[in-house]
Amino acid sequence: xxxxxxxxxxxxxxLATSSCATVKNAEIRNLxxxxxxxxxxxxxxxxxxxxxxxxxxxxxxxLQHKLSYNSLNMANAIGxxxxxxxxxxxxxxxxxxxxxxxxxxxxxxxxxxKINMSxxxxxxxxxxxxxxxxxxxxxxxYLSGRADNRESKLTIAAIVVGAAGAILTGGVIKNETxxxxxxxxxxxxxxxxxxxxxxxxxxxxxxxxxxxLKDIWFGASNPEIFxxxxxxxxxxxxxxDGVQHSLxxxxxxxxxxxxxxxxxxxxxxxxxYFGEGGKYSSEQLNNRADMYDQLESNxxxxxxxxxxxxxxxxRF
Length: 316
Fold this sequence. Notes:
Shape: elongated
Strand order of the largest sheet: 1-2
Helix content: 55-70%
Structural class: mainly alpha
Number of helices: 12
Radius of gyration: 31 Å
Distance between the termini: 91 Å
Oligomer: single chain
Number of strands: 2
Order of helices and strands: HHHHHHHEHHHHEH
Number of domains: 1
């Protein structure tokens, strides 16, 4: 019986030690404090440097007739409107000599260059969002794995304690008083393990000094993370067709309506998600990863409008 009790004590000590274990894996520690998702893409511009909203511009009727509104807005986002106006004016000229053809070719090359560069910018910022999502998910899975491992140990310990109590009180201990005391002790131990399983929660320090979610939530006037064309695209809303919410505002609405975070609050959760980091649970890390995934999806929508613009330009 003494050996069995010693075994129970050892199991308890092992569980206590594992629940207080620190992060020893060097790769995990690096993921917690550093991110390699940003490849030195820092943009320096002000709100005045962003394109003028499309509905405030005076566009030629020829240009409006040639392109759809979404394509015009995309052209405006990537700074292509002046080039398109020149291209249309040149195409309307009756004289088509060698100089004319050279000018047309130069304008086409300029348009293709801006479309290709914009596509690379979209891919770059989208890949950073995807990388941050994967980084966060990895830590969440690591934390969940530790919790599952501890819960398995607690379950095994509860089974061992319950079985030991049944054996000891079922015939090993002849003294009734000792048997009752053993039954009560093992019952309390078994209930304690169940109680520990119920509160098997763990948090971990996770840092993110470069925080794209912060710019989306607060609507930064000069974000360093998003290139000007992407930031314009996310923040533009066309009042003429009744759309009063930009893509950025729609993203925030989804976060709040789906219960990922409360809007217009100064809660600890807001400081955690949109600050530089802190103690996260696995559920909060998964939630943060989902927010990055939603942001990435909306940025990638820009590629659809960019493709539509390219196809419409081919039909000029």
